[in-house]
Give the backbone structure.
Amino acid sequence: MSTQQFATNALHACHDVTTNGGTRAVPIYLTSSYVFKDSDHAARLFALAEPGFIYTRLNNPTNDILEQRLAALEGGIGAVVTASGTAAINTTLLTLLRSGDHIVASNSLYGGTYNLLNVTLPRFGITTTFVDPSNPENFQKAAQENTRVFFIESLGNPKLDVLDIKAISKHAKSHKVPLIVDNTVATPSLLNPIQYGADIVIHSLTKYINGNGTSLGGVIIDAGKFDWANGKFPEFTEPSAGYHGLVYHDVLKEAAFIAKVRIEGLRDHGAALSPFNAFQIIQGLETLEIRIKKHSENALALAKWLQEQEQVKWVNYPGLKSSEYYELAQQYLPKGQSGVVTFGVEGGFDAAKVIADETTIFSLLANIGDTKSLIIHPASTTHQQLSDEQQESTGVTKDLIRLSVGLEDLEDLKSDLKQAFSKIGKKVLK
Ligand SMILES: *Cc1c(COP(=O)(O)O)cnc(C)c1O
């Protein structure tokens, strides 16, 4: 593994210019398939007896560079990129779990993930217990005989709770299940969950890693440390009917999981990333470190300013001393706490909606991690289908506004919010 620093790896890791025609930029290999030398060659590739490209649903040279680079930046042994962050989560869980299995998950997950676990996976016999992650012991308490994974977000979206990954990982280890960490909001530049005991790290590449809102993508990164032969995962120790009797743990050793994600997960679920999107994401990844630093600085400054505004009831940003996650943020995110800020306004649901509608620099849309500033009022949009109780547990109160603070000049962002605040009275009281 490279001994170079993050910024250098983000620009150079795993792109050998001598084998890619001398191209300084990573080239886009826009091809669905690869010509075999002969049938024996093809047979060796399919039997994993020789490495090589087969079909872009399984692997691709552009995607391969992105995969290796992201694995290097997170400290993993391998990675698989997927069509979206959601595809990364889904492919991971369907690779590991079977009907009858159980998940223990944090209750402050991204809305889409919450629905996958709460509504869709139960249709296939995979159930989840959601726990308050602020007490790591809750994971242990909720673990059952059939529990097979713990699932958390390092920095919850949109609750912005910083999780004690080390403490939760201890409970995962004592229960002999892998800890899966969605590290999307924190990014590998600010936090590497594997250092604190995560077994699998997931990102939506759509957010800060791509960084300018052009492409969807996801990644699954394997720490390569989990013992799949501990008796709980027959998928890895018994001959796989899905891959001509391959015993993953015997043949692929510590890479058993990430290999199965590729050769069965991508093959059967088909959520492959377009090489064109991989190229776009590589452009973003190159500047991740300086962008996320600026996102974090702008977000902290704006959060402090919001605290002083009379229309603002509360502000949540883990970099604020007033945040209940401040101590954990200093431990896990000392370099910066990313670009998402939430706050509540006097006037509740209606006033919050006015602000989301009236800002002009902040675009009203459902995304985070763009260079441009974004705003949303989740209770009236992304989280409208959740019950009051679910909204409360996911951290989405009626008055909550979520900002994804971009790279614009801070004074312009303040002016935009100020003029939106001035419209509250007129609209809500009418
Ligand atoms: C956006 C997001 C996802 C889903 O990613 P997509 O690329 O939109 O599918 C998952 N987790 C978190 C924390 C996210 O913010």
User: Anything to note?
Assistant: The two ends are 63 Å apart (CA to CA). The chain has a mean pLDDT of 95. Residues 288-307 form the longest helix (20 residues).
